[in-house]
Amino acid sequence: MSWQQFRENILRVVSQPENINDIDLIAETYAREYDACMKRGGDSINKIPIAKGDVVKMKNLFKSALKQGLSTTTNYDLVGQMGNGVIAYWTNAQMVTITAPLVTLAQVAVGATANLFATKNTVINPGTWVGANSAQKQEPTPNPNKSKDTTNEPLDSNTKQSILFVGDSVTAGSYSYPNIIAKKYPNILVDILAIGGKTTGWMLDNLPTQLALKKYDRVYVYGGINDSFNDSISSQTALNNVQKMVNLITNSGATAVVIIGYNTDNSTDFNKIPTTIYVKDKTLYIPMIEKYKKYQDLLKTNIQNAKFVGKFEIGKLSDGLHPSSTQHTVIAKIIKDGL
After folding, report:
1. Are residues 52 and 192 in the same domain?
2. 153 lies in some domain
3. How many Cα atoms sit within 13 Å of 129 on the Cβ side?
């Protein structure tokens, strides 16, 4: 396996900090060298080498751990956090398929089966990772469906808690994701502050009144689409509004959770968005969609003191903007399970 070679290859990069321009290089180097090291070795019993591990997911988790370490102001277990990347690498990894040796005639005589052949060799248990802070601490196996930007914890359906969802038309409606959560999990008491077509400015104006009416455990904010489709509202204005809402929420004693939203690259088709009296040419939607995508990317890096529901996949939107009832069910599960 040669951990010494792994160490030397890593040191060749990190010992020259003047050549390191960003975190990507470090994450890529560790992921690449770990993969190479694993492929030089084999399992402890049969010495079977690995054929394929999830290097991409490992790199992304390494990068996330490094970024988190740069922003933290307290003691930070970088080794423990990077362990999530190692677990991801081994989750459903494929080992080399090797034909079992032929049995002897004596073994055949007593019922052994000859000419066994392995067609698949998958890792079913990726193991655990012990963090640097405690030899007893074990990092949990990351959920393979969890968005890399999701930092919010799952909702406990067995505990009574009050939740407020703030948003626009994606959040409003009789069959929206908040209503699905409310109907499916009676212990989660759901309120909704959302009207179609509203911007983050409207949400900010109405949130204080709602927070004064009731004590909430969590408040989810999902907005910015209408801001992005309005030329008179800048992305910075929308970000400022979200930050002010987060401040109001945390000051009320609740946990603020910002929903980044669906992946517009895979969900939004400008050709499907209906024209209006203001937008008569559908191609004019293209820069608006790009504006919203940039706004989504800025949420995670600009908003402070909030948890996040990372960007998620729900498939193509029938009208280019609004989820179907089935897609709302997917969003409800993403929020409930912290994916």
Report:
1. no
2. no
3. 22
For 22, 232, 316, 333, the CA distances from 327, given in Å and listed in that order, are: 37, 30, 9, 10
pTM passes above 0.85:
no
Supply the range of the domain harboring residue 64.
3-139
CA distances from 254 to 163, 180, 219, 246, 250 (A): 9, 22, 7, 10, 5
Residue 26 lies in a domain: yes
- Note the pLDDT tens digit of each residue in 301-334: 999 999 999 999 999 998 999 999 999 999 999 9
Per-residue pLDDT reduced to its tens digit, 238-258 = 999 999 999 999 999 999 999
Same domain (yes/no): 303, 166: yes
Q: What angle do CA 300, 304, 307 make, to 5 degrees?
A: 65
The residue type of 323 is P
Query: For the purposes of burial, counting CB atoms within 10 Å of the CB of 174, is it exposed (0-12), middle (13-18) or buried (19 or more)?
Result: exposed
CA atoms within 13 A on the CB side of 2: 11
- Between helix 285-302 and helix 235-251 the angle, nearest 10°, is 40
Instruction: State how many domains the chain has.
Output: 2
Tokens found for residue 188? 């989660």
C-alpha distances in Å from residue 181, one per residue of 42, 105, 283, 328: 46, 63, 36, 10
How, if at all, do strands 161-167 and 218-222 pair?
parallel
User: Per the structure block, which two tokens stand in for 186?
Assistant: 């009676």
Residues 167 and 128 in one domain: no
User: Has residue 11 been placed in a domain?
Assistant: yes
Q: Are residues 96 and 201 in the same domain?
A: no
In a domain, 309, yes or no: yes
